[in-house]
Structure formats: C-alpha cells, structure tokens
Design a protein that fits this description.
0% strand; 12 helices; DNA-binding; 190 residues; 74% helix; Tetracycline Repressor, domain 2; mainly alpha
Amino acid sequence: MNKEELIKQTAKELFFSKGYLHATTQEIADAAGVNRSLINYYFRSRDLLFQTVYHEAVDSLKSQLDDVIYGNTPFKEKLGLFIDVHMKELQKYPYRESFLITEICSKNFALKEKKKSAALHHFLKEIEVEMEKGTIKKYDPIQFVFNLTSLISFPVIMMPLYQKLLDIPKEKYSELIAQRKQIILDNIFN
Amino acid sequence: MNKEELIKQTAKELFFSKGYLHATTQEIADAAGVNRSLINYYFRSRDLLFQTVYHEAVDSLKSQLDDVIYGNTPFKEKLGLFIDVHMKELQKYPYRESFLITEICSKNFALKEKKKSAALHHFLKEIEVEMEKGTIKKYDPIQFVFNLTSLISFPVIMMPLYQKLLDIPKEKYSELIAQRKQIILDNIFN
DNA sequence: TTGCTGTTTAACAATTTTGTTAAACAAAAA
DNA sequence: TTTTTGTTTAACAAAATTGTTAAACAGCAA
C-alpha cells in the first residue's frame, strides 16, 4: 500500500477501531511506521488529514447500505441483511460514529453537504409500504430507522462503558452482541 | 458557586453538553471566566481534572436511576419513569456517555471499580419476573436493558450526525425525539 | 495593627505538538 | 551518464499547551 493510503488507514484504525480520538500526528505516524513529516507532505496539515478521514467516513456511512436497500429481496430478509452489514462494519469500526460526532461538535462545521441519500429515500418509502400492510407499527418512518439503528449500534458503541457499568466480562459481552440480530428482528416484527 | 465547583461544572458543560472533547485548560478557564492557574491550584493537573469529571460522571450514571428502580410502582409505569429520567438527563448532557467512552479508550484504563450496582441487580430481577409473566419477550434480561437504553439514548447522542445524514431540520428532529417515549413503550410492550 | 490562611494572578519555564525547510534518496526518463 | 520527478528524512523553527513560582490580594484572628 502507498504511504498516503497507509497513513489514512492507520488514522482510521486509531480513530474508528481503537476509539483513540486524541491521537497526535506523531502517534499516527508511529502506528503507521512512517516519518511524521510524510503526514504534512501528503495532507499539508493535521487538520486536513482529519477532514479527509471525516469525509470518507461520512461517504462510506452513506453508501454502506445502498446495495442492501436497492436489492429486491422481501422486506424481512432485507432487514436481516441490513443488520448483517451494519454489524460487520461495527465489528471493524465500532467508534466511527463517535468520531464523527466529536468532529462535528469540535469544529463548528460549516458543512456544505446537502445531498440527501437516494437510498435512504427509497428505504423510507419501503418502510411506509410495510406500515400500510401492517407488518410493522405505524408512525413516522424515520422513527423506524431510529429504532433499527439504535438497537444495532448502541450496545456495540457503548461496550467499554457498559462492560464496567453492568459488570459483564468480555466474552459474555461478545456473546450477547452475537445474539442481537435475532433479538432485533423479533423486536421489530413484534 | 465556589471556583473549584465552577471549573468542574464548566468542564462538564463543555464535554457533556457541547461535546467539545478536545477542550484545553485555557478554553475551560475562559468558559468559566477564571484564571487558568486556578485549574492547577484546585486540581493539580489537567489530567486530574479529567479524572475527577470522569468519576463523577460514572457515579451519576450509576445512581441516576436508583430512585426509579427501587420505587414500588408497577413495571409499566416504572419504565415510563425510567425513560423520563433518562431523557431529561440526555437533554442536559447528551454527550456524557460519549465522553466516557473516549476517556476509557484513550487512557488504557486500569480502573478498579468493581462494585456492581445493586439497583441494576434489582432491576434485572424485576425484568425476569415480567418475562415469566409474559409481559415482555423472554431472553437474557441484559438484552432488555440493551434494547431499552439503546432506544432512549442513541437518537439523541447521534443527533448532529443523523441530522446531516437523514437531512432533518433541527425542529423536526426535536419533535421526533419528543415522540420517542411513547414509541419506545409501544415497542417494548409489543 | 500584625500575622495567618486560603485564593487569585501574572510571569516565567518546560514540554509537547505542529509545521517548514533543505538535503538525501531512489527510480525512471532523457 | 545526467536529469528529472516524486518520496523520505532529519533538523530546525514556531506555536500551542501545560505546569510552576512568587507575589498580590482579601478576609479573619490574634
């Protein structure tokens, strides 16, 4: 892998996987095994590296589920896939969303992105259809998305904290997470 | 309010309310309207201030719900209260959990806390009883806690991100959050 | 008053973190 | 071969951040 990509991937590793949001350029360089000056060479400044990583994370979050959503599998299976894809990403990058939140809050983001995801729109329509059919409860389809993503992401994102608060050993916690797909599906389809 | 408390409260304001996790001692001092040296006077170092704030946050998270859980209201009302209390706290401190996660990940926390919350234990027992009664679905009671806290917290914590991703204006988002109590209760009691 | 105590501040020092520059290097082109 | 181009490095400079110190200050007690 070329060094530029390596630096970016390593930064993501630190931020999204290890939740190490305070990483300095030196720490990133060390983790990547490159000279710190390379970060300035390829990204000009620490801030620009962060911006790059940020934007790529947003993009990947947006596009992550396109394939699933546009597939013409029936709704229930589609949700199963939705959960699978999301879970797999969470396993790799549990803190990606946390990083994004922190960045958005830190800078007073004058972000221009206004392009509403077409996939999302499609998904919302599909949810509405199912609500009409009575497969799922009837309210604002966004609330359904809230429910779904909350049930998938939150227990994973909060793992280190909830392990402490609920006093659950690591293995037990992993086991609980592994069972969540079925529990979420049960929950959603009453 | 005495300056020591003022500094602590201001730090919490920045971390928990504004999600500004990168705050420097100077920024905290400015926000509190005190001389930066006071932080060192009262807390010795930046790190000790962080530790203090961290531990108070964990404690408050633990004790936050004790009253509700030990009250002898019936289960359904109790959950309603549980949601109310949680939501109120989230309104004030939406990023408290995010801060804790970040801190835990940053330091390689050699944290000693092992005192399992008695309230939690009591709550889990109560959930099990309801599962036996058939009021709610039957699985590991921890999963019920996961579901409940996820549905309550996640949409609030992710607000700035989901506003962007889902392209929802601020007021609409607040409205959606306001409706969540009922939706969560509906969801849990099938 | 003086002396004692705890609080607050500015000035300074030390450290950490970031950014720049010029030189070294390597591989391909002329 | 020399030149060119892009990459990599160490050394330096600049900036930002933290920690320390001594003096100023305010209130109260002796």
